[in-house]
UniProtKB/TrEMBL annotation:
InterPro entries: Gfo-Idh-MocA_inositol_DH, Gfo/Idh/MocA-like_OxRdtase_C, Gfo/Idh/MocA-like_OxRdtase_N, MI/DCI_dehydrogenase, NAD(P)-bd_dom_sf. The keyword Nucleotidyltransferase does not apply. One of its GO terms (biological process) is inositol catabolic process. Belongs to the Gfo/Idh/MocA family. It comes from Aquitalea palustris. The keyword Ligase does not apply. Keywords: NAD, Oxidoreductase. This is Inositol 2-dehydrogenase.
Length: 335
């Protein structure tokens, strides 16, 4: 069976997912698209030669009988409404991060999904599907560096657009670490603090960049994450775990070492699309396969909620400079 997917939001990642659904993955096809900017939707249909209808609103796409599953890749603040509509229609939905822009919004989705009685939601947290993070988790699970004590992480983008603001460093960027580090350590956070180094001259006035987020987990692991979204030199994701008997680091993406012009070098990627290309493929194939098998296993609405609870605390910590408590309720059996 080929899963008929409707895509809401045909911008950067929407088009990238349409490309992989149409050209790389198996078992799915794009049958409908919608974007608040109709020219953007038409452009996606043309570029990927889709046999897809173009809807003039998201609700119509979700209700379209030809659409069996929904992909939400629109702007973050629109996610909650579309995901709730998909659940109300009983259709599986893959939603890009963030699941909703606040923990309260994510909780509405959790409640709706539980009331429906079966998992319908997968969140686009792709890093748990990345081979490097998976290898890192295996090292931890095999006890090869002993119990984890500290994590030193960095999330660096070369530059960001004019619309990117200080809280977005948390809700748009750090949200990936909030998810993947929780998955890696298999525990929730209990506190957050944000400190601001000297501001980069490359950051626009509305953005404090870089930032350092300090997290503490339930067992006492201390985590520092540098978020630096105007670092200029590349797209660079770092994660180093200091354990009781050793240190484990996220592998660098593979690249040909070059001896040339009196130097020895390896390239650094500049684009998130390339850095996690394999992980995006695997996460979306897992969604297709999960829908076909009647059982979703990827990052859940609860994972989206957990990341949002921590993100809310980090945004508050940005404002007051204090250590903010993170209070995470126990995971319901449903998840
Ligand atoms: N998992 C990942 O690594 C990534 C996830 N994302 C997430 O994907 C989402 C989209 O990001 P981008 O593609 O980079 O943004 P974008 O700005 O390139 O595209 C967003 C598209 O959604 C459309 N849109 C906005 N509001 C809408 C609404 N209410 N209804 C229908 N269409 C609407 C816009 O017209 C635009 O075409 C964001 O939530 C972002 O955080 C983005 C990049 C990477
Ligand atoms: O999700 C993403 C973007 O939305 C976000 O703006 C970037 O900072 C992240 O690196 C990228 O993975």
């Amino acid at each position: 069976m080929t899963l008929a997917i409707g895509v809401i939001g045909t911008g950067a990642i929407g088009q990238d997912h349409i490309r992989r659904l149409s050209q790389t993955l198996s078992g799915a096809k794009v049958v409908a698209v919608h974007d608040i900017n109709p020219l953007q939707a038409e452009a996606a249909v043309k570029q990927y030669q889709l046999a897809a209808s173009v809807h003039d609103n998201g609700q119509a796409l979700i209700r379209d009988p030809a659409v069996e599953a929904v992909l939400v890749t629109s702007w973050g603040p629109s996610h909650e409404e579309f995901v709730l509509d998909a659940i109300a229609a009983g259709k599986p939905v893959f939603c890009e991060k963030p699941l909703a822009v606040s923990a309260a919004g994510c909780m509405h989705i959790v409640q709706a999904e539980r009331a429906h009685g079966k998992r319908l939601v997968q969140v686009g947290f792709m890093r748990p599907y990345d081979a490097g993070y998976r290898a890192l988790k295996q090292v931890l699970q095999e006890g090869r560096i002993g119990a984890p004590l500290m994590l030193h992480c960095a999330h660096r983008n070369p530059s960001v657009g004019e619309g990117y603001t200080t809280p977005m460093a948390i809700t748009d960027t750090l949200i990936h670490e909030l998810d993947v580090l929780r998955w890696l350590l298999d525990e929730d956070y209990v506190s957050a603090q944000v400190v601001f180094p000297r501001k980069s001259s490359h950051a626009l006035p509305q953005l404090a960049d870089p930032q350092i987020v300090l997290l503490e987990t339930r067992s006492g692991v201390r985590i520092d994450v540098e978020i630096f979204v105007n670092c200029q030199y590349g797209y660079d994701i770092q994660c180093q775990i200091v354990g009781e008997t050793g240190i484990a680091s996220l592998p660098e993406p593979s690249s040909v070492p070059l001896r040339s012009a009196a130097s020895y070098s390896t390239a650094i990627l500049t684009d998130w699309k390339q850095r996690f290309i394999a992980a995006y493929d695997v996460e979306l194939q897992a969604f297709i396969d999960g829908v076909q098998a009647g059982s979703l296993t990827g990052p859940s609405a609860w994972d989206g909620y957990a990341a949002a609870v921590a993100a809310d605390a980090c945004v508050l910590a940005q404002q007051n400079g204090a250590v903010v408590e993170i209070s995470m309720p126990p995971r319901p059996d449903f998840y």
